[in-house]
Design goal:
single chain; 129 residues; alpha/beta; Hypothetical Protein Ychn, Chain: A; five-stranded parallel beta sheet; 4 helices; 18% strand; globular; DsrEFH-like
């Protein structure tokens, strides 16, 4: 039995730091699952979510080691990984693209959110949606 891809525009918006809570890792795992049936799915890293692009040692902070495998795997599956430029300037000013990531402006990110059929947001507790 094969799974037919759906034509819905799905966007995962991840603002949670990968080291702050398992929410970030769970969002990435969910995105991996969605990518099977939603071709053209995208992930937008913004706020502290861009910290997923730095070198992380999950074993030192009690997070699953698989955390390191998810972003490259999503790139291999042609999932669009978009990174907000303004968040990069704030949290990772010296970062340079070395993988499948595409840097976009905050305005482009908002247009993407507004143009999506389904937006799944992951951010810190207490933040207004």
């Amino acid at each position: 039995m094969s799974v037919e891809p759906l034509n819905k525009k799905v966007l995962f918006v991840i603002e949670e730091s990968p080291t702050a809570h398992l929410r970030h890792f769970e969002a990435m795992r969910m995105a991996l699952g969605f990518s099977v049936t939603h071709s053209g799915m995208k992930i937008l890293l913004r706020g502290r979510g861009v910290l997923a692009l730095r070198e992380v040692h999950p074993e030192l902070i009690g997070l699953p080691p698989e955390l390191l495998e998810v972003l490259p795997l999503l790139g291999d599956l042609s999932v669009g990984i978009l990174v907000e430029a303004e968040s990069l300037s704030e949290y990772l000013p010296d970062w340079t693209a070395s993988g499948p990531e595409t840097v976009i402006s905050r305005a482009e990110g908002m247009d993407l959110i507004l143009g999506s059929d389904l937006v799944l947001g992951f951010w810190s507790p207490g933040r207004a949606a």
